[in-house]
Request: fold
Amino acid sequence: MELRLRLLRSTVVAVLLVSQVTVAAWLAPTLASGSVIPAAPPGPRLTTIQRGLERVTAGVRVRTAMWMALVQTVHGRQDDLRHATATMRQTPKHAPGTAATLRQLRARVRTDQHVLNRLLPSWLAIKASLHADYRAIKALLRASRRVVKATLGGGPGERPSAPWFAAWPVTVHADRTLQVCPVAGPISLTDSFGAPRPGGRFHEGNDLLAARGTPELAVQPGVVVPDPNTLGGNALILRSATGYSYYAHLSAYARSGFVPAGAVIGYVGASGDAKGLIPHLHYEWHPAGGPAVDPFPFLQSVCP
Reply:
């Protein structure tokens, strides 16, 4: 069994090396476009960054779906393999009536190993591909951060925001549940609502990855109430006529009290338990003040 596991690890390493080369080649046009971003004016630069993020994010969505389809099967087989192996070790080999039990356990082990041999390399290759995707996203967001600093200053709100919105126009859609995208700038958005979190929690919103200092906007007219806390860091609640929105991990607040839709209320950061992660807005939508619902379809209707 140890020999088979060593061979499996060798196979996984080989698959990962091939996968990384393939992913690097696939991402080359995106990274190449990022390398010329500083030469363009702010508006086209931001548009180029957003297109690069959309390309990489599309791959993230596909690979995440593949990952979720495989992860349950792989974990289940791993658990069964460990249990069957432990039971075999604990079962007396010469006790009456154990021969049939041991045969059944050996058959389970062989089946589990066969399934893992077939699935595990692909599973780990997808994981490596996702890591490569996020490295590409980080590179694009670093380019976006340079535009943020050049336009708004080194710290949030250091300069008037008019030049930023001249480069990144915002449209308010009064007829939609969310009237504007909560982040005014290039973003990477995937649907992670319901994903497991430590302590038995689950992800109650969506994360909009963006450059630190990118303006965050009120998605509806309402009242902004700062809500700093351990997990969300610099967080706030936007109370509106149809429910409330929760914004977390801000780098700084912009304003509180009543605001119209589209007003700047904060800036993207990585505060709270997001420290050390890619800066992002954790956004939650609670219709009628009730439990959080998946905001992804609403965000898709107003975000790039």
Notes: The chain has two domains: 2-152, 162-300. Residues 98-152 form the longest helix (55 residues).
